[in-house]
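Running co-folding for geranylgeranyl diphosphate.
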Amino acid sequence: MDIDDYLQAKRDTIEKALDTFVSVKDVTHSQLYQAARYSLLGGGKRLRPILALAAAEAYGAPEQYALSTACALEMIHTYSLIHDDLPCMDNDDFRRGKPSLHKAYNEGHAVLTGDYLLTKAFEVVSDDPHLDPLKKIELIQQLSKGSGCQGMVAGQVLDIEAEGKLIDLASLQRIHHYKTGALIQTSILCGAIIGNATIKERECLSAFGKEIGLAFQIVDDLLDVISIQEKRGGHVASDSANKKTTYVTLLGVDGSKQAAEGLLQSALGHLESSGLNFNNLRQIALRLVRRQK
Ligand code: GRG
């Protein structure tokens, strides 16, 4: 199957599952469900769940075994975007081409909807009838690490601390490894756990995920700078507006492109050294790092 068809098929599967996991089933909380659905079903590349599905699939695991974890990753990612857009953080009025959640609802609802999605993520994995209890614990452990103080939340704290300061490349990489890369790395690792990968294979896939995560962020910085306003749904990227240090401010456009490509090649090397058939993961990595939007 062509990689674009593959990505679309996975997106459809994930969206159908998300729609089922977060359904308007409780009238008492209808506002909460509606707000969660506004953000969760409102577009997005579905990168993290696709990476988890693709990694599990490379080991021959049935798709339904990885679906709850894939959706949990998207729920955690969506919560982070909702909170990141708040006035006390990046103060972004738009997300995924429409008003951010605190604009469409209000700040209180945005905080609570983020909280709901984060906790729902752990609920869907712990409720999964296909996974044995030990695997659930391992997955929940990795999701906690990748999204909490060993991952995304730590990165966001480092990011806040760096605000208004000139930082060097090593500090920027550290921020982005935690803030963006860790959840991407976790997505691939979770797929490997579901597929019963060996410790060695997990290490290999983690190394791949770490480099892809950083390359993804570099490309995000590049697109922020070089994409015209129309491509971004008419709003100006908040990083430029907030005068943050980015890969482009440190390395320039060409230097950033080279850094992303270097990370991509190194990441692909980790995949190849595993000797398994990771063709879809390979294609996804290529698509990610060489994307134009
Ligand atoms: C608030 C705890 C907390 C964390 C926020 C991930 C994050 C940490 C903030 C997002 C800020 C941002 C725009 C970072 C750039 C890279 C990135 C994560 C972009 C958004 O991810 P995509 O491109 O988004 O996968 P879609 O909409 O396609 O899912």
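Result summary
Residues 65 and 130 are 6 Å apart (CA to CA).
The first strand starts at residue 94 and ends at 95.
Job closed.
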